[in-house]
């Protein structure tokens, strides 16, 4: 397995909370520009790369934005208060380090709370070590966003790091793009913005592209840890082909094509019925007159934490499955 | 400023006609195109003598929160449901108007003498309230009221203190009034004005309006939450009265475009216009639908801080109104130059 761990490491390390994806967009653009025929950025910031073909138009979407925090107040003592950008949990955020676009690092902590279950984001603050408001405001302004700052780690089996969601999906799309063999299909690779705040980028990208088919590549949850909620998805069992989540019931034609090609090529896969959550396909499939859409999911433990964990094999199988789907006749 | 006329008109979501008719008439002769679209939005186009390439949309919603008649008791008392985000704690004993003929009524409830002790500490539910229009029976009430009639708060516009306005529905008649002032000004710029419907029940009108206008840049004018008391820490006060227009950072519906936001701040600073940030991630407005319409656009949220929003009596500062007007005018001038 020729797993480009350095690229994945690079992708998860670049700043890009929802609404401020310019740095990760530039990184991905540089990585893929020599492999594609056209590359553009739209009004919301989606990076749209096209490999031209005369056949069906397929939109692949992996979101490049990250969950994070937005500063809404700097108090007299220099502590920052914040709002959430996407699905941020108070439990997970407590005692984490965060980093701003300009490199300023802070620690998230909380006012004393009697019952930890009653802790809310509004009781929490970011401490950047400033001595007072003036000093803090030299480093951070209202409206600045920060993201989790936690090291990347990996072994033979897994990667664990913040932001596999969805830089792992971006990685799968980039690797698939590089490995595409000849095909007539007209393929648009969208690295979308603002997925974490409501699938906003994929909606405008799909509107502009008007694809025949849509495929999102994103992480999904897991059911294979001690006493986990029942969910037939686990690590090292293959790429997950989504049947349903809260944003979409995948179109049978796309879902079955993925299953058929996986069987034909002996690509390990598992079927995903997720009872919550959503991803870019949820926005794509209801665009204009409708777009038959599916999802390739990367099984991931501890999604939206700083230790998101996915299997190298599963990621590799997701790439193989995506390449197979994109090169088949539609 | 048309806040007296605009706030004394009623326009509960889905029933914006009175507000729309007033705005339409006030714009006669000031804009080049004027239309009411199929969902009820009033969309106007003020053309520049020398139009630039970018399409600018400015939106303000015409509707206000209120109530809707759902049934009439045999005694002639009216049962109702809320329309939009109504705080049920503020309803009891308020004066309202019912239906298109604006029949006066009062929201009633069981008197304190008849309440059991445990009822004192409980908030009255909407089911415990009714509207009394002085009818003697169901038959009598039905001569004037029918199920489906809208109910609005009955509040006269007034000014208090030094330059403070109190009125109902300042969310978002204040935006409508500022947009009216801009469209009636002598600014030579290409502007699409969208007076939208049904914002309070889910940003319903803004999507269709943006779909028709296809803006490159959109500004949403709002009246936004304002709450400031001694007991609060600085982060618990989203905006402050009298400290200038509030520029949105993020809310439940939009991450506001950073470049546009920074540009607005530098325009404010260059023109000595006071401003503040809207320091909360809660709430939402028409921008949520506008910025993801079509292939998307950059949006900004600029709001007049409004105390006691979503109640029969909200409060704003004239200075904030004027500074918001100035800021938006300056922004339009910069957009015209192609600076943004």
Describe this structure in words.
The complex is a heterodimer of chains A (330) and B (340). Chain A has 330 residues and is an alpha+beta fold. Chain A has 2 domains: 5-66 and 163-327, Aminopeptidase; 68-148, Elongation Factor Tu (Ef-tu), domain 3, CATH 2.40.30.40. Chain A has 9 helices and 17 strands. Chain A has helices spanning 5-13, 22-32, 90-93, 133-139, 164-179, 200-209, 252-264, 281-284, 312-327, and strands at 38-41, 47-51, 57-63, 68-74, 80-85, 97-100, 105-110, 124-127, 145-148, 153-154, 158-161, 186-192, 213-220, 239-244, 269-273, 293-301, 308-311. In chain A, the strands form 2 sheets. In chain A, strands 1, 2, 3, 10, 11, 12, 13, 14, 15, 16 and 17 form an 11-stranded mixed sheet that branches. A 6-stranded antiparallel sheet of chain A has the order 5-4-9-6-7-8. In chain A, helix 7 links the parallel strand 14 (239-244) and strand 15. Chain A is globular. By secondary structure, chain B is an alpha+beta fold. Chain B folds into 2 domains: 3-64 and 168-336, Zn peptidases (Aminopeptidase, 3-Layer(aba) Sandwich); 66-153, Elongation Factor Tu (Ef-tu), domain 3 (Beta Barrel). Chain B has helices spanning 3-8, 17-27, 117-120, 138-142, 170-184, 206-213, 258-270, 287-290, 318-336, and strands spanning 33-36, 42-46, 56-61, 66-72, 78-83, 95-98, 103-108, 130-132, 150-153, 158-160, 164-167, 191-196, 217-226, 246-248, 276-278, 298-307, 314-317. In chain B, strands 1-2-12-3-13-16-14-15 form an 8-stranded mixed sheet, with helices on both faces. A 6-stranded antiparallel sheet of chain B has the order 5-4-9-6-7-8. Chain B is globular, with a radius of gyration of 21 Å. The model of chain B has no long low-confidence stretch (mean pLDDT 95). Classes of the chains: A alpha+beta (330), B alpha+beta (340).
């Amino acid at each position: 397995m020729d797993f480009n761990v350095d690229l994945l490491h690079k992708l998860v390390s670049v700043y890009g909370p929802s609404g401020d994806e310019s740095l990760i967009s530039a990184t991905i653009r540089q990585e893929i520009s020599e492999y594609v025929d056209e590359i553009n950025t739209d009004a919301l910031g989606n990076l749209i790369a096209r490999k031209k073909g005369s056949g069906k138009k397929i939109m692949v979407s992996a979101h490049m934005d990250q969950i994070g925090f937005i500063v809404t107040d700097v108090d007299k003592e220099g502590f920052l208060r914040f709002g959430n950008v996407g699905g941020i949990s108070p439990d997970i955020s407590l005692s984490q380090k965060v980093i701003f676009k300009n490199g300023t690092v802070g620690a998230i902590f909380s006012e004393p709370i009697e019952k930890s279950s009653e802790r809310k984001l509004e009781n929490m603050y970011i401490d950047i070590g400033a001595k007072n408001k003036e000093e803090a405001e030299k480093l951070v302004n209202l409206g600045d966003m920060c993201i989790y700052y936690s090291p990347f780690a990996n072994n033979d089996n897994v990667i664990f790091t913040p932001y596999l969601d969805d830089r792992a999906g971006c990685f799968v799309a980039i690797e698939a793009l590089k490995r595409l063999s000849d095909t007539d299909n007209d393929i648009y690779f969208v690295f979308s913005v603002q997925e974490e705040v409501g699938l906003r980028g994929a909606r405008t990208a799909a509107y502009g592209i008007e694809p025949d088919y849509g495929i999102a590549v994103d992480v999904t949850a897991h059911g294979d840890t001690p006493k986990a909620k029942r969910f037939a998805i686990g690590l090292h069992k293959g790429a997950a082909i989504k049947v349903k989540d809260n944003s979409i019931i995948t179109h049978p034609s796309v879902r079955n094509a993925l299953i058929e090609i996986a069987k034909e090529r002996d690509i390990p896969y598992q079927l995903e019925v997720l009872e919550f959550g959503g991803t870019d396909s949820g926005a794509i499939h209801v665009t204009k007159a409708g777009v038959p859409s599916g999802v390739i999911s990367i099984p991931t433990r501890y999604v939206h934490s700083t230790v998101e964990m996915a299997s190298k094999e599963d990621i590799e199988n997701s790439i193989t499955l995506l390449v197979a789907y994109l090169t088949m006749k539609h | 400023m048309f806040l007296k006329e605009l706030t004394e008109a009623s326009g509960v979501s889905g029933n914006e006609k009175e507000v729309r008719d007033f705005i339409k008439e006030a714009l006669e002769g000031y804009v080049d195109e004027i239309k009411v679209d199929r969902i009820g939005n009033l969309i106007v186009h003020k053309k520049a003598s020398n139009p630039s390439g970018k399409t600018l949309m400015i939106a303000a919603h015409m509707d206000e929160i209120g109530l809707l008649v759902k049934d009439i008791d045999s005694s002639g008392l009216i049962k109702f449901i809320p329309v939009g985000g109504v705080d049920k704690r503020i309803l009891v004993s308020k004066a309202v108007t019912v239906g298109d003929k604006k029949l006066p009524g009062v929201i009633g409830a069981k008197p304190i003498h008849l309440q059991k002790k445990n009822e004192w500490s409980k908030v009255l539910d909407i089911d415990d309230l009714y509207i009394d229009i002085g009818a003697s029976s169901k038959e009598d009430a039905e001569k004037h009221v029918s199920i489906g009639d809208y109910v609005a708060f009955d509040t006269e516009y007034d000014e208090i203190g030094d330059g403070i306005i109190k009125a109902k529905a300042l969310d978002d008649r204040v935006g409508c009034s500022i947009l009216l002032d801009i469209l009636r000004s002598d600014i030579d710029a290409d502007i699409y004005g969208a007076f939208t419907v049904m914002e309070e029940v889910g940003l319903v009108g803004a999507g269709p309006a943006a779909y028709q206008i296809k803006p490159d840049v959109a500004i949403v004018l709002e009246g936004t939450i304002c709450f400031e008391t001694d007991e609060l820490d600085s982060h618990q006060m989203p905006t402050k009265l009298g400290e200038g227009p509030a520029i949105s950072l993020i809310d439940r519906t939009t991450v506001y475009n950073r470049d546009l936001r920074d540009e607005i701040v530098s325009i404010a600073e260059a023109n000595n216009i006071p401003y503040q940030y809207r320091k909360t991630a809660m709430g939402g407005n028409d921008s949520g639908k506008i910025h993801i319409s079509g292939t998307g656009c950059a949006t900004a949220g600029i709001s007049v801080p409004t105390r006691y929003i979503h109640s029969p009596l909200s409060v704003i500062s004239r200075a904030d109104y004027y500074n918001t007007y100035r800021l938006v005018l300056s922004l339009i001038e910069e957009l015209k130059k192609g600076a943004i």
